[in-house]
Design brief:
Blueprint (H helix, E strand, L loop, with lengths): L1 H15 L6 H9 L3 H11 L16 E4 L9 E6 L4 E6 L9 E6 L2 E5 L5 E4 L6 E3 L17 E5 H9 L17 E5 L3 H4 L1 E6 L10 E6 L7 E4 L6 E2 L6 E6 L5 E5 L4 E6 L6 E5 L13 E7 L5 E12 L8 E11 L5 E4 L5 E5 L5 E4 L10 E5 L3 H9 L13 E3 L2 E2 L7 E5 L5 E2 L5 H7 L5 E3 L5
Parallel strand pairs: 22-24
Antiparallel strand pairs: 1-2, 1-29, 2-3, 4-5, 5-6, 6-7, 8-9, 10-11, 11-12, 12-13, 14-15, 15-16, 16-17, 18-19, 19-20, 20-21, 22-23, 24-27, 25-26, 27-28
């Protein structure tokens, strides 16, 4: 024990070194800065903390807010839940200039432009990279008009189900394994669903990306820095959500409640999966549900289920007034799932764009035992935005009735759910003005320190 304490003290002195500050002092300074200044501070002084590279990581994610049509495309707005304030940052071109935001993973935001190209960008530093062209997946017909993509369903579904037609369930018949075409600017709402990164793409030769496709396609696709192509992988149940864990594996939950781990074969480079937990039995609510993968602060897997409830029907589905509820399932040390309403000193941040569980001890500004959520439906949000001139509820600003009243039962864009009493409310610090500006789902971003 004495040797251990002596070694720790020696490491602190070494980390401080000539002209350097002790890690404890750096952390104290770091916590007193504004949330954007903390990123710049951490980038400069991270090396001074030696092996303890977690000290500068933020406790809660930020929100990347959608931009209105008349706003400057060269800027983006970030909102810090913990600091309860917003800041404007430079929007890197082309990755954040008005493109559809798919998700956030490891501090990087994935976007799709109007030609279907997927980028990943670090909104805190401006660094960006283009992921492989989607047509390398091998299930697309040759493109004559580059404003269109045509998916050949038969080879895609053959890989997904591991056999040729007839396919299982609703995919029987030529109408389901023929061709499906999309405008290039529709790929984010109709084909892409989410990108999950294994690690920062700024490290050459080190990252893998998992692309989750829309439900009708089901199979995930993988690309790595070693192989710049998208490769489909079998998934009969379809992947609904996924995360990457410290053990180097992707973990996914299917639409039917099957949780699998994904690993890459060192020789072939192909990704395969196997079930690693008992199947979750989750009743489907009448108005639909969504499942999210997350990990508790101690590393245990979590599946969070959001059940949508329509409180008043509208003329179109995107006009419906809406509320929601959540159920949390935690994998116990005995390998069994348990539903709980008590997650202790922690809060969940969920959305199709990103899902995580963060500790709240010492962070009174974050509501422990709550679920912070964002909208998942890129397609419906795009339809609301497109129909804005003809519908009073066509965008999220329909949530706000007038200057001093907020309709708490319709906070689908972003809101807060209490696991303790089942209430839904807006995030007060975001303010009515920011809610009015929302037109597309906000995105949870955990800033990545270079």
């Amino acid at each position: 024990m004495t040797s251990s304490k002596g070694d720790a003290a020696k490491r602190r002195r070494t980390a401080a070194g000539p002209g350097r500050l002790l890690p404890e002092l750096l952390v104290n300074i770091h916590d007193r800065l504004g949330f954007l200044d903390r990123i710049a501070f951490a980038a400069v002084f991270a090396a001074s903390c030696g092996d303890n590279d977690d000290v500068f990581k933020p406790c809660a994610p930020w929100l990347l807010l959608s931009r209105e049509e008349n706003e400057n495309p060269a800027t983006a707005t970030l909102f810090s839940v913990a600091d309860r304030r917003a800041a404007t940052v430079r929007a890197p071109n082309p990755a954040l200039w008005g493109h559809s935001v798919l998700c956030s993973s490891g501090g990087w935001v994935a976007t799709a432009d109007d030609m279907g190209q997927i980028y990943v960008v670090n909104p805190a530093t401006g660094e960006q990279h283009a992921l492989p062209d989607i047509t390398t997946m091998g299930s697309f017909l040759s493109r004559v008009d580059y404003h269109w993509f045509t998916v050949w369903m038969k080879p895609l579904l053959t890989i997904r189900f591991g056999c040729g037609p007839p396919f299982d369930g609703k995919y029987r018949g030529p109408m389901f394994y023929g061709r499906r075409s999309f405008n290039a600017d529709e790929m984010a709402g109709w084909f892409y669903r989410k990108v999950v990164l294994s690690t920062s793409p700024r490290h050459p030769g080190s990252y893998a990306a998992m692309l989750i496709l829309d439900r009708i396609f089901g199979a995930p696709a993988f690309a790595t820095s070693e192989d710049a192509t998208w490769t489909l992988a079998p998934s009969q149940d379809g992947v609904e959500d996924a995360i990457h864990q410290a053990d180097g594996r992707f973990y996914s939950v299917s639409y039917t409640g099957v949780v699998k781990a994904w690993e890459r074969d060192a020789e072939s480079g192909a990704y395969t999966s196997k079930a690693v937990t008992p199947k979750l039995t989750i009743p489907m609510e009448e108005d639909g549900s969504r499942k999210y993968m997350a990990a508790a602060p101690d590393g245990r897997l979590m599946v969070v289920v959001k059940n949508a409830h329509v409180t008043e029907k509208g003329l179109m589905s995107w006009d419906d007034k809406w509320t929601c509820s959540f159920k949390v399932h935690v994998l116990g040390h005995d390998g069994q799932w348990r539903e709980t309403r008590d997650i202790g000193d922690a809060a969940l941040f969920v959305g199709m764009n990103n899902s995580l569980c963060v500790p709240t001890r010492g962070r009174p500004e974050i509501d422990a035992g709550s679920v912070y959520f964002t909208d998942d439906e890129l397609r419906e949000a795009a339809l609301r935005k497109r129909n804005e001139p003809w519908s009073s509820w066509s965008s999220y600003r329909g949530c706000v009735h007038n200057d001093d009243e907020f309709h708490d039962a319709d906070v689908r864009a972003v809101g807060l759910y209490s696991l303790k009493d089942g209430t839904v409310k807006r995030i007060e610090a975001l303010g009515l003005e920011q809610y009015r500006k929302l037109s597309m789902p906000p995105v949870w971003v955990t800033p990545s320190i270079p």
